[in-house]
Amino acid sequence: MLLHGAFRGFAGGARDVTLDAVTLGDALEALVRAHPTLAERLRDERGTLRPHLALFINQDDARLLGWEDAPLHEGDIVHVIPALSGG
Amino acid sequence: MAKKVTLLVGTKKGLFILRGDPGRGSWPCEGPEFAPTPIHHAAYDPRDGSMYAAVNSTWGGSRIEISRDMGKTWKTSKNPAFPEGSDRTFYQTWHIEPGHPQTPNVVWAGTEPAALFKSEDRGETWSIVKSLDDQPSRAKWVPGFGGMGLHSIAIDAKDPKKMQVGISVGGVYTTTDGGATWAQDNAVSGGERPDVFMCIHKLLAHPEATGVRFMRVHEEVYWRDPGETTWRFSTPGLPSNFGFAAAIHPRDQKTAYVIPLDGMKRTASPFGIGVYRTRDKGKTWDRLDKGLPEGAPLEAVREGMHNDRLDPMGLYFGTANGDVWASTNEGESWKRIAQYLPYVTSVHAATMD
Prior knowledge:
In chain A, a hairpin with a 2-residue loop joins strand 2 (53-57) and strand 3. By secondary structure, chain A is of the alpha+beta class.
């Protein structure tokens, strides 16, 4: 997984994490185990992924692939990106 | 050792720290920390030297940051969280209030959605004050123009069990048992008691005099003396009824300050930016504007004014156009000590040895 922008700072400066996961949701759980400071930055107290968080699997928007249920494959790169919006 | 003042200046794009020299004449500016994130409020805890910042971030959600080394480094607290079963989730922090000296590890936070959170470990973790959250009258709280938040936490000078909170728009609640129980506290002298007071903008407890309170409400200001259970109207003499920023003198028990704004334009127009002082509990008000730009339609928001604890008292306010103004003679004259900052959302004066 590659952390971008603010999420790199939330993880103490970590740039990337290599992990085993079957789905995107599994990958996020493993990411939080590796960097617990990301737990409240990724999800609210109900476990809902926060807004303004973009997740890409390689070059594809994970929302179009099933979001947390999106399957992962050997060698996939998951990008964790602070989403930009507005004009 | 001579005391010094450090200003924590929250802006829409990060926190700035202005460390004043002992004469309060020079104010080197550090920052911004946390940019480009908005800082709704930042506070210094004189009991242990901690600093707290309400970092209300779009990315990664809002959080509270703590510094134990005078702002050199910061760490993230565990988020305030609404309990399981609640229909709300923590959105952002509006105010952080260090607790009473008799409760050394206690820190309070007011949030949006409107709720009071208590930390008993110097801000590391937070728990909701359920007794306030369970008030049946909470159903009548509604958002003001800026949202629905709890922004004022007024702790009595002598008795830490006595405190008030102010909510927009939900009125005032008082506890006399440290937060175990609460009662609506909206009665106006000579008036009927509304269930939910008009929109509270800032409620302050005098830091030395037990029972003295000063309250800035959407369209009024009010005073309360020890033993009183109602709020005494004290607006006559101000150029407008509206405003947010307020301060109370740290020693004089009759003196308070406000920055009036036009109720529609939300700036100090047409009368121009000025600080108004009462020295008789609101019976009369004096305009203090020596050194301020004449007629300027500036704006200071809810957390935008604060005082130090020195003698003579220093008073400070920040504006939407990124200025910070200081008076080291209790408001008699003013000097701009910072400019070109982002929109200033809060000013907190930390008095330290």
